[in-house]
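Encode chain A's predicted structure.
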Amino acid sequence: FLMAPHILLLSWTAVGFSVIGAGATPLNKFAFLIKSIEAVVTGGVFLIATLVFSGITLAMFEALHVDMPDAVVRLLFVGLPGSIPILAIAIVYDPLAPPMHQEFKRGVGRLIATFPRVLLALTIVVLVVYLIVIMFNFMAPFQNRDVLIIYNVMLFAVMGLLLGATPVTTDDLSEQLQIGLRSAIIIVTALVVTVSLYSLAAVAYRTIASGLTINRMTVLGWNSINIGLLAMLIIRQFRCDKAEWIPALQQTFSDGIYPYIVWAVFVTVVTPWLF
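Encoded structure for chain A:
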């Protein structure tokens, strides 16, 4: 179970290198990240529609007391979903153009650009309330493993949210919207860093108390990488000029590709020999 997402990440990495190469510009790498999210969202929509279609088809024949052959059932619930990744990529990605020249302002790409920005405001409210609640349940993650799992899922979800909210260009954003979006991203990042440091302390505490396991080492590594990237994001935003805040964000996410790859390789290749 632990290896599956890391192998998936490394497979995606191999696709990325074949598309953009090792020496791609930050904008090209960032555009590839956005297109990857768009392909995943599109595939998710197709998967839901396919499962609904297959379920209704099977139910209709069962209502007539007709048993579908196993080969047809496998085609409906395995064959069709298995073709979705290829179909989703074919729809959202133009193989004749580099990532930075893809279409980002229509269809699912437009949704991905808009929806995360709306969620930023709600995320700020949730994180502020959560930090207040932590004061009354401070030891929960130190004692409950499930709470730590939720924290780590939250951390990756927020990283995806920040990535999706980052514009590729400023063409469709007014100056006021840019100011608001930049402020929201910085606030969310600062709040997430606070919660993540709290989570990291809980993992370290459990490691010292009960010993280092493959799961704890993996979590410690991912938490440290994500916290470092978020801290870098904040530092770069305060150092850059108002006109350069979007390239600074894109640079941070582009730089984050490399520690993600290194740690995924370490977990996949090295940790089985250590534990």
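The chain has a mean pLDDT of 85.
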